Amino acid sequence: MSAAESLADRAAASPILTVQGVSKKFGGVTAVQDVSLEVPRGAIVSVIGPNGAGKTSLLNMVSGFYRPDTGVIALEGDAITTLRPSQIAARGIARTFQNIALFSGLTVLDNLMLGRHVHMRAGVLSSALYWGPARKEEIAHRERCEEIIEFLKLQDLRKQQTGALSYGLRKRVELGRALALEPKVLLLDEPMGGMNQDEKEDMARHVLDVNIERGVTVVLIEHDMGVVMDISDRVFVLDRGRRIGGGTPEEVQRTPAVIQAYLGTSKGGGQT
């Protein structure tokens, strides 16, 4: 997909991910209630809402960490509702987490290599002895990881332990590890949370590059409304577990229920 294609063109593409009537309860608390949405192929879709609106629970169901009580989730028309997280990752859905989930004692390269696990095919014996197919496979996987490191401008840090990196760089490494799965759909849970303004701008550029240059569909949870409205093709709004709005950024900003529940009276955005 070329950078010349407009946001409207990408937003009008056929859906790659479909969520239909999904609900999830934890005891007597309803986290998500009868939520439906479609994610167009090649788009950047943001899911917004106040704290406790059910955003992360929704992503957890899409990625298989939670199983919905009701409803169907489909990737490219095939139901993935009952699959395990590893099976969903193998189908082409990768995610990052609100709290960074890297191995701090490993290098940047090693963390990205771990992201290749769903593509590794060598047997246990050949891997242990590091010969034949296992050696060829590791070289190929390492080359893919090096390409991602270059793409995210992490070349000088490839041998650094991730625990020694700044917060913003660790977030970028986590993005790289998700990209190492070669996803069709990338789920980002507050990728800019806790960052300063410069770090947010860098991450926003990387998200756009992932979408435009690598053709990856992105589903984004983010509280910074300036970022959401600048980079999203579609925005869906949750409040108390229910979907209360959806459409282009411009349409969402004009929806009375959204203004009342989340955006307030300000025009420009900001953070919650």
TrEMBL record:
Alphabetized SMART domains for the sequence: AAA (SM00382)
GO molecular function: ATP binding; ATP hydrolysis activity
InterPro entries from the UniProt entry: AAA+_ATPase, ABC_AA/LPS_Transport, ABC_transporter-like_ATP-bd, BCA_ABC_TP_C, P-loop_NTPase
GO cellular component term of the entry, any: plasma membrane
Keywords from the UniProt entry: ATP-binding, Nucleotide-binding, Transport
Signal sequence coordinates: none
A Pfam family per the record: ABC_tran
Domain ABC transporter: 17-265
Protein name: ABC transporter ATP-binding protein
Lineage: Bacteria, Pseudomonadati, Pseudomonadota, Alphaproteobacteria, Hyphomicrobiales
